[in-house]
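Field guide to reading this record: the first block holds the primary sequence, the second block holds the structure written as discrete tokens, and the final block holds curator observations. Each block starts with its own label. This record concerns Pre-mRNA-splicing factor SPF27, catalogued under organism Tilletia horrida.

BLOCK 1 — SEQUENCE
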Amino acid sequence: MDASTSRDDDLVAAQALVQAELARSPPPASSSADPRIPPALDIQTLPTLSAQFDRLSTQEAQRDASADDRPRLDTTRFSLPAPAAGLDASEEEWKQAVDNAYVQLSHQEGRAINIDLMKKYGANHWRIHNYVLESSLSRYSAARSHITDSVSASTNRTRMLLQQDAEGKLSTLEAQWSQLVSTQLQMAVASLAAEHEVETLKQERQRLRQRIETLETA
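BLOCK 2 — STRUCTURE
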């Protein structure tokens, strides 16, 4: 009981502090009085949206008009209209109605014959057609394989000839390079020998000069 009473006292004290703080704080200003908040936007008054709505309405009207102007399927030739005057119609009108009935009957008979022929021979026709397509595919595949083999053989033969020609040229160039290197080495050796001989002759000349000077002095 003591703990419960203590919690209730703490809650009452906290509520009293909150009420006192709210009493000291100034009341919040309304959102309409705040100059930082922009006014409500009416999208109906925007010129861009109005123009867009007008354009969509015009397009919808044009689509409806074009749908009404489109040619429709003529079904009158599939109907069997009787003369408009009925039994009081003239003989010519009844003759036209009978002729139309004969035409429609002939058309339906033709369609029935076509359907019977399709049922009887359609499957075989498609089998023959598929056989022709398979034969054509086999011929085209064989021709493609032959052309591919011919091109591959020609390419390989051309590559082999080019490689052989390049091999001969490389061998010739390698021999020329070896000969030039050998000539350069021989020239280098001869140059070293000549330099050594020149140096020897210089020393011999110097020795002879010294001897001549010695003899002249004596």
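BLOCK 3 — OBSERVATIONS
The CA atoms of residues 199 and 205 lie 10 Å apart.
The first helix runs from residue 2 to 24.
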